[in-house]
């Protein structure tokens, strides 16, 4: 049986003052820690434990979510529009800003054409447009 590739999310919680880890399609919020890397490593261990348990019991894995996105064609050579990329991923401004690690205010300015993303941000937008699953998993 092919092991599914579950989306792992790490987010900051102001309420808890720590990073929270989640595997939405497997167990939801399941760990926390002081750094994103620490939480992500915990998520890998937790996912491995669940997969091992399913294998041991001979159960099928829960289906891994496929994020509804539309690949944007001809990304190279065209202006990357943050709002279209965000909408194609089905994310709110707050969610997309968290994924890109930028303030929501900055994202809004990009979307309204007031400012342009830096070189690094443009690279992240290009990844989000072409391979969104990589961006969502890596960050």
Automatic annotation (TrEMBL):
Record has Transcription as a keyword: yes
Record-linked Gene3D superfamilies: lambda repressor-like DNA-binding domains
Organism superkingdom: Bacteria
Record's keyword terms, sorted: DNA-binding, Transcription, Transcription regulation
Domain named HTH cro/C1-type: residues: 84-135
SMART domains: HTH_XRE
The protein, known as: Helix-turn-helix domain-containing protein
Organism: Persicirhabdus sediminis
